[in-house]
């Protein structure tokens, strides 16, 4: 399953659609501008909230939290420093951990579980400049969760770059 994401240019408060490979609007990332912390909602095409994403207020390292139906689903934080690649750890509430690594700012990274590829995020196969793709590799993967993870790590990496 491949999804196309038009890169946000202005940040929090911007809404943008995620389309499938046929150009159908599938998910809406709804940025909430007037909040104390960075907040997004991932909605389906009918406007139903599938996932809430927010930045954890009091944490030693920048952390994003993903919730579904008001219940925590995952926590994302930077794993380790590297000059060439970014590494993030996604801790799901069931104890499962996903690894995200690659060149986040270039939109070239992977989401893996125990070294098995779940999703590949890339601009390589696209001709539109401000667009990147999210290619969900596993049939049984949760597309909404993996897209939410991609949105979170990109947001965290962009915040780090702004602070530097």
Q: What attributes characterize this protein structure?
A:
164 residues, Porin, 13% helix
Brief description of this entry?
This protein has about 160 residues and is mainly β. The protein has one helix and twelve strands, in the order E-E-E-E-E-E-E-E-E-E-E-E-H.
Query: How would you classify the helix and strand content by structural class?
Result: mainly beta
CATH architecture: Beta Barrel
What order do the helices and strands follow? EEEEEEEEEEEEH
Average pLDDT metric: 84
For the record, the count of structural domains works out to 1
Count of alpha and pi helical runs:
1
Q: Which residues form runs of ≥5 with pLDDT under 50?
A: none
Tally the beta strands. 12
Globally, the shape reads globular
CATH H-level superfamily: LURP1-related
Q: What is the CATH topology descriptor?
A: Porin
Organism: Streptomyces glomeratus
InterPro entries: LOR (IPR007612), LOR_sf (IPR038595), Tubby-like_C (IPR025659)
Protein name: LURP-one-related/scramblase family protein
Pfam families: LOR (PF04525)
